[in-house]
Amino acid sequence: MTDLETAAHEPEPSETTGMVVTRQAGFYTVWLPSGQRILSVLRGKVRKGGPVVAGDRVRVRIGQDGRGVIEEVLPRTSHLIRPPVANVTRVVAVVAGPEPDLGWLDRLLVVAESQGLSCVVCLNKIDRTDPETVQSFRSLYQAVGYPVATTSARTGEGIGPLAALLVGHVSTLSGPSGVGKSSLLNVLCPEARLEVGDVSARSQRGRHTTRVVRLLELPDGGLLADTPGFSRLDLEGVEARELWRLMPDIRREAAHCRFKERCLHRGEEGCALPEAVEQGRVAPSRYRHYRRLLDEALQREARRYS
Ligand SMILES: Nc1nc2c(ncn2[C@@H]2O[C@H](COP(=O)(O)OP(=O)(O)OP(=O)(O)O)[C@@H](O)[C@H]2O)c(=O)[nH]1
Ligand SMILES: [Zn+2]
Questions:
Q1: For 48-81, how does the pLDDT look when each residue is reduced to its tens digit (9 = 90+)?
Q2: Which residues does a 6 A CB cutoff place in the pocket of ligand 1?
Q3: Mutation probe of ligand 1 site: the residue of 174, 177, 183 with most atoms within 8 A of C-beta
Q4: What was the ipTM of the complex prediction?
Q5: According to DSSP H, which parts of the chain are helical?
Q6: Same domain for 110 and 34?
Q7: Co-location of 46 and 108 in the same domain
Q8: pLDDT tens-digit readout, 113-150
Q9: CA within 20 to 30 Å of 9's CA: 26, 95, 126, 262, which one?
Q10: Whose CA is nearest to atom 1 of ligand 1?
Q11: Per the annotation, does 179 bind a ligand?
Q12: Domain of 10, in residue numbers
C-alpha cells in the first residue's frame, strides 16, 4: 500500500498544520504531514495579514468536502523575497565546470549566511570538468565547512548524494545562468518534469509578472522550490566589520588574530590572516574574495556616510 492509499483510509483530523506548497488564483495547496494535499482558501483575517507564500506553515481547518480553510500562518523562520518562499532552510549554491565561478559562489555563500541559511555547495557538469578541478573544488569547500555535492544532471552522477543533503529541508537552488539549475531540478524531482508539457502552467507564467512558485516534493523527503533563489546577490545589509563572521574559514582564523574586533583582517601588519593563507589554512581564492567583498562593503558604507 502506498503512503497515499494509507492516508486515504485515515480520516484527517478536522484541524491540522501543514505547509503551503503552491498558490494559484486564490487557492493554496497545503501539504499535510500524512502526505495528503488539500486545496484551501484563506480565512478573511489571514488575508489581511499579508501574502501567504509557498513554504508557509499554516493551521488549516478541513471541511466535510475535503477543502481546507487556512486559519493562521505560523511564525516564519526565514522569508525570501525573490522568489517568495517562506521557511527556506537550505540553499544549494550551484556552479558548473569546466571553470566554476568561485567569485559568484563565495558571494552567494556570504549572502546566504547573512540570512542565517545553511548552504550546500554543488559543482555541476562534472561530465565536462577535469577530475582534478572536481577534486580540488571538493577539498576546498569541505575544508571551509560546507557539505559538497559534485553532480552531472546529464549522466545522473552524484544526484543521489545531493538529494540526501536535502532530506528534511525546504531548499532552493541558486546559481549563475546556465549552470544547470533547471536540469538538476528535473532529475531531482520527477514531479518537475511533468511541468515541461504543462501548457496551462506555462501560459499562466507568461501572463503574470510574478511567477507562481511551487515547492516540489523530493522522492526521499524534503521540499525544493521550483524557482531559483537569489537572482540578485545584494550585499546590502552586510556590514564590512561583520563580513569575516560570514565566511567560516576566515572566521576560524580571525579568532587567532591579536587585533581581535579592531581588525578588518585585510592583511594589516600583524594580522593573522595572511599567515593563514600562506600556511594553507585559508584558500587564496577565498581570501581574495573576502577582500573584494570587504572593499565593496567599505565603499558602500563610505557612500552612505558621506
Ligand atoms: N554537460 C552537461 N550539460 C549540462 C548539465 N546540466 C545542464 N546542462 C546543460 O546546460 C545548459 C543550461 O542548463 P539549465 O538547466 O537550463 O541551466 P539553468 O541554470 O537553469 O539556466 P538559467 O535558467 O539560465 O538560470 C543546458 O543546455 C543543459 O542541457 C550537466 O550536468 N552536464
Ligand atoms: Zn586580523
A1: 888 899 999 999 999 989 999 999 999 999 888 7
A2: 124-125, 127-128, 152-154, 175, 177-183
A3: 183
A4: 0.98
A5: 3-9, 44-48, 102-114, 131-144, 159-164, 181-188, 190-194, 199-207, 248-254, 272-278, 284-305
A6: no
A7: no
A8: 998 899 999 999 999 999 999 999 999 999 999 999 99
A9: 26
A10: 125
A11: yes
A12: 3-73
